[in-house]
Amino acid sequence: MPDNTHSDQNQDLTGHPSPEELEAAQAANETDALSAAQAEVAVLQAKNTELADSYLRAKAETENARRRADDEVAKARKFALESFADSLLPVTDSLEAGLQQTDASAAQLREGTEATLKQLKAALERNKVVEINPETGARFDPHQHQAISMVPADQEVNTVVGVLQKGYLIADRVLRPALVTVAAPK
């Protein structure tokens, strides 16, 4: 017959774990928690290192992109000026050739000057420099015109009466406004 009076050494009579058992279980739980925390710290450190590396690469890439963009802007400015100067060289050549003519008639000089002016206007247009030359009666535009004076005229108030000097736009931006006279109120 089995001996039921003998209780388990690790349990008291009520079936609850003994203090030694509780202490061992608590130590095991703490060891497991410590191992889990250390593993989590290792994972987070690896992730931190990865993110720091990604950040440094992104920062370097951004710096390189900015440097390339700055170089491209500098080259664009340089070559835009080069293109503009290149388109003016034929005009210079024509003017010099005209000055070398000593026996040209007034009609020939006028013809040469008109041809040179045509070359100059074509060079300006190729480089997006456009005339502002409003017609008489056109509405005064303070963004493109500069009124020199207001004069009495038989036309609507604040309209262009005459152009004293043409203006110019470069790529839709006013380089120089047209100097105009404007119709005064009656």
> Helical region count?
2
Radius of gyration: 45 Å
Structural class: alpha+beta
The overall pLDDT average reads: 89
Shape: elongated
As laid out across the biggest beta sheet, the strand order is 1-4-5
Characterize the biggest β-sheet.
3 strands, antiparallel
Strand content: 15-25%
Helix-strand topology string:
HHEEEEEE
Helical residue percent? 55-70%
Unreliably modeled segments: 4-8
Separation of termini? 136 Å
* Count of β-strands: 6
Report on this model:
This protein is an alpha+beta fold and about 190 residues long. It has 2 helices and 6 strands; from the N terminus they run ααββββββ. Strands 1-4-5 form a 3-stranded antiparallel β-sheet. The chain has a 3-stranded mixed β-sheet with strand order 2-6-3, with no helix packed on it. Helix 1 packs antiparallel against helix 2. The longest helix has about 80 residues. About 5% of the residues have low confidence.
Topology, please?
Elements: H1 19-100, H2 106-126, E1 129-132, E2 145-151, E3 160-165, E4 167-170, E5 173-176, E6 178-183
Parallel strand pairs: 2-6
Antiparallel strand pairs: 1-4, 3-6, 4-5
Helix pairs in contact: 1-2
